[in-house]
Structures are given as C-alpha cells and as structure tokens.
Amino acid sequence: MTQQIPMSPSARADRAESHDHTLEIAPDLAYQRHAIVNVVYWGTPLAGDRNWVLIDAGIMGSMSAIERAATERFGPGARPDPIVLTHGHFDHVGVLEDLAEKWDVPVYAHALEASYLNGRATYPPPDPGVGGGLIALSSSLFPTAPVDVGSRLRLLPEDGSVPPMPGWKWLHTPGHAPGHVSFWREADRSLIVGDAFVTTAQESAYSVATQEPELHGPPKYFTPEGDKAGESVRKLAALEPELVVTGHGRAVRAGQMRAALQELALRFEDVAVPQGAIYTRHPARAEDGSAYRKP
Q1: What is the C-alpha end-to-end distance of the chain, expressed in Å?
Q2: Which residue among 4, 26, 217, 295 sits deepest, i.e. has the most Cβ atoms within 10 Å of its Cβ?
C-alpha cells in the first residue's frame, strides 16, 4: 500500500523566494527552510523590534541565516517577542539557546514539552527501523538531549491564546511529541502544524531534497504515539484549513491540500503508522513517564 498522498505542484502556497531564502505565504506569514526543517516568521514586514514572532528555531548552524532573515523582513536589530515552539525536537531547537540569550526573549511552549526545554529529560530514542529511506536509517544518530533555556521558558496560556499573536490559537496536537502544538488562525483559516503532519517524506533523503509536495504523517522515526498522532491529524483536518505551513516540506493551500488532508485523516493508520515498529508495539507516553528519559 502506498505510503504517500501526492499533491500536484499547484498545491504549493509559496511562489517567490526572497534573496534571504524566505518564502512569503501571507502578508504577515513567511517561512524559511534550513536543510531539513522550516522556521516560521509571523508579523508584518518592517514592523520593527519586538513586533514579530519566530516559530521554532531551526537546526544547529542556522543562527546567522535566521538573523539575516529577521533583519531583512523586520528591520535592522529587530528581535522577536517571543520565540514560540511547536515542540522541542533537535531540528526545531537547534539554535534556541543562542537566539534566546542574544535576543533576550522568552520562549513559549506547551507544559508537556517543558522537561525537554529546561534540561530535565530527553526524548525517547528514534526508531531507525520504521523504513522509508536514508534519513530514517540514520536517525539513531540524531540528538535527543534536552536544551535548557532556564528562566526564559514560559508555558502557553491554558485559554489557548498565543500571547503576542492576536487572532491565533494554539491546539494541542500530540503524537509526535507529548506537548506538540499547532497554531490556528480562523480569520483566514491559516494553520502552522510543526510536525503534526508534513508535506514531504521526511524519512527519505531524496524526497527531502526534491521537496515535491505530498502529504505524510509526522516523521515516523520520531513519533512514539501513533494513535495520538492520528487523532491530531483528524482534529486538524476537521478545521478545513485554507493554508498550511509544516515543519518539513513546502507550504500548501486550498482545495487539493484539503482533500489530501482528509484522505490522510481517513487512512492514517494504514499510511502513517509503521507496522511492527518499536513504538507501534510499545508507545512512549507522557502519562506513565516513558516519554521522559533521564539526560
């Protein structure tokens, strides 16, 4: 059975890449690819210092590219208020500590991610046996150690608001990580999903390189709760978004994307949960503590 839900290139939401390699998909929304992962910039261009938000913090070595993009988009010396995380995996917090210190900004995340962001716990190890390609096979080399942003860490408000982003709500979308969240703006039906689902076969080096748009569940090698991941995709599909930017792959929009998302929700257990994999047999749960390992 196929493990992908293809979309034509017409589903892409981005059309023109700036010289700093950001791709604008709405007047106040852009993203930038760093090797295997995206970071997202929210805020009106040239809004100035503290009037924008960085969502996720890339991989190791991406600090200068993020700073250049921030300067280009928001003006010289612009710092975000704050940094907001979808979750704390290594490819989403690669330069978090350095940026938070240099910019002197708080970092917001879900309460169930806090232990991975204050140095107290590591994620469960990846499962390289999920299949799908070279990245999955090499995932045992990926770091799981926590970062520590110390007193800068803040918990997302329980009312679902995102403090510096009016009109946006955070949604708990676990499965890929215990405290994974997505961000939803109902006014224009925009959705920032992190790794709740992705638009490339993240297990495959070839797919990551070509970036052909196709819908997949979260990266299988780092998803310890397939059942919750499926519930999260169904929650997001029910929103019927118009625009989606994911943590991996290209941003996509409108009808074809929505149809593909509905199909992924319907067929999730068949196409996105690797049969016989470690965490399919033995999920790592926040509830029993198995999702949190000692550093």
Answers
A1: 38
A2: 217
Classify residue 65: in a domain, yes or no: yes
Contact predicate 81/107, CB 8 Å: no
State how many domains the chain has.
Answer: 1
Backbone torsions φ then ψ of 289, nearest 5 degrees: 85, -5
Q: Specify the pLDDT at position 129.
A: 87
Q: Which domain holds residue 49?
A: 5-281
How far is the C-alpha of 111 from the C-alpha of 225, rounded, in Å?
Answer: 18
286 lies in some domain: no
95 pairs with which residues across the strands? none
Predicted pLDDT at 49? 84
The letter for the amino acid at 112 is L
**Dihedral angle sign, alpha carbons of residues 38, 294, 174, 208:** positive
What was the pLDDT predicted at 17?
57
Q: pTM value? A: 0.93
| Bridge partners (DSSP) listed for residue 172 | 181
Q: What is the side-by-side order of every strand in the sheet holding 83-84?
A: 22-26, 29-34, 37-42, 53-55, 83-84, 107-109, 153-155
Query: Can you give the pLDDT at residue 255?
Result: 74
289 within some domain? no
Residue 292 belongs to some domain of the structure: no
CATH label of the domain that carries residue 139: 3.60.15.10
DSSP assignment string, 59-127: STT-HHHHHHHHHHHH-TT---S-EE-S---TTTSTTHHHHHHHHT--EEE-GGGHHHHBTS-BPPPP-
How confident is the model over 67-89, as pLDDT tens digits? 999 999 999 999 999 999 999 99
